Amino acid sequence: MKTARLLALAGLLLTVGPAALFAAGLIAEPPMKLLLLAGMALWFAAAPRWLREPAE
Amino acid sequence: MRVPPAPVVSHEYERERVPDHALKGPRSFWGMYAGEHTAGTEFMLGPLFIAWGASAVDVIGGLLLGNILAVLTWRYLTAPLATDLRLTLYCKLEKICGRRLVSLYNLANGLLFCMLAGAMVTVSATAVGVPFPGVQMPAFGDKLPTGLAWCAVVLAIGALQTFVAVRGYAFVARVSHLAAPWMFLMFVACGLVTLPKLASLNPVDIWTGVALDGRPGIGFVGIVLFAWLCNAAMHLGMSDLSILRYARKPAYGWAAGAGMFLGHYVAWICASLLFALELQRHGAAASNAPGPMVFSAVGWAGLACVVLAGWTTANPTIYRAGLAFQGVLPALSRRAGTLIAGALATIAGLFPAFAMQLLDFVGIYGTVLAPVGAIIVADHWLARRAGITPDWAARTGSSFNIAALLAWVIPVAGFFWLYQTRDIFPSYLTVPVWLACGGLYLGLSRTLLRAP
């Protein structure tokens, strides 16, 4: 569960981080788009395991 | 914008008060509101503010004020009523208006759901059509299908969404729940990526206050009212009784703030920025079709986001419309109701008018459905003081409350007349119609309804 949580959070970080780096001029457009895709894959692979535990 | 809860969200406590042991803590409400207000509609609404000539002050200040008013309405009107009653909207409405009038409400609800789902089919189609150069994307002025290829994409998506709605609502609900945090961050990513590409970051250059079609801009008041009342069916209209009846206390109504300020502020502004860039690139020929805009900004992940956003909004809407139709015709199976709803939504999706006129449509949707909430408010808080019988239908065993029907239909008919003849922005009329409906219900009940 802990690994899934870390991976899911990394997925979210990869969703917004590369966009922020692109906005700051620190990364080019093609790798930014690729990293967003990786973030999406990571989130949807890991989040179902992480969120399986009941919310309350 | 969010779709109201279905007539049968779950089979729990449909016809009775929610018992104390079933009440939920604040976390579920904050999570639910935060997730459900970032949806496919947001991709359309943000750009429409620019197209309708909102200025920077209108957008930044107007959305802030409108969202605050929406949260206050949830907190001080919907949540106290929900925690007093602990009943669904449908159950309470049946007690006041009788079963036959609730059927009429269900019909209106179902038809409006189909149109909303149709707009979301359109949104998904703009993303699915991106890899196919033959698909002509709709532009602002488009009301009719843009070609055969467009129709083929819409029909395929509509059929798929209807099939999924018939087969597995639970799966869609799970995907929707799962996608929500990622989808919100994708909106933020779209906004961030757009910033360095804009010629000027001065908000005055982004939201110029000049409408694309040369009409007068929507203005500060228009934006405030739209942000406040785009979910009028849920707060003023009391659809959210179905959700907030599980709240331990009325203070949980503050949770709506999560949806308003993430979905209806940050996401709308980010979607707006996408269209500002399109305008900068293509001038008057710019299209607000979300698929190409988002693909250009963030690539394939963005395209997946648009498809998912449209899908997760359209699918439960089709399912809920099916349930609403089933409420009108109880002999209809749930599957048949969903198929009818899906077919209507797909036909609506062929016509970009619903998506391109979403500001108007959302206003109409709220103005038609919200007045029913005024009847509940009048019945709950004012009936005894006004000398009328609360829960009139339940106490008299009637299945049709004529006072409630007239109180609902007369102001709504007046609204449609003004909308058609004076071209008034629908959100301007939501509150007057709501107040008129409540007042008329009190007055007509005294004269038309017999005491039990």
Assembly state: heterodimer
- State Rg of chain B: 21 Å
Shape of chain A: elongated
CATH architecture of chain B: Orthogonal Bundle
Describe the largest sheet of chain B. Answer: none
Tell me the number of structural domains of chain B: 1
Verbal overview:
The complex is a heterodimer of chains A (56) and B (452). In chain A, 79% of the residues lie in helices and 0% in strands. Chain A has 56 residues and is mainly α. Chain A has one domain. In chain A, helix 1 runs antiparallel to helix 2. The longest helix of chain A is centred in the first third of the chain and has 22 residues. Chain B has one domain: Hydantoin permease. In chain B, helix 5 crosses helix 6 and helix 5 crosses helix 12. Chain B starts with 25 loop residues before the first helix and ends with a helix. About 1% of the residues of chain B have low confidence. The interface between A and B is medium-sized, with 24 and 26 residues.
Distinctive features:
heterodimer; A: 56 residues; mainly alpha; 2 helices; 0% strand; elongated; B: 452 residues; Hydantoin permease; 20 helices; 71% helix
Summarize the structure.
The complex is a heterodimer of chains A (56) and B (452). Chain A contains two helices and no strands.
List the helices and strands and how they pair.
The complex is a heterodimer of chains A (56) and B (452).
Chain A lengths: L1 H22 L5 H22 L6
Helix pairs in contact in A: 1-2
Chain B lengths: L25 H11 L3 H12 L4 H30 L3 H9 L1 H30 L19 H20 L1 H26 L8 H4 L12 H11 L11 H4 L11 H27 L7 H9 L1 H29 L5 H17 L2 H4 L1 H12 L1 H16 L5 H5 L5 H21 L4 H22 L4
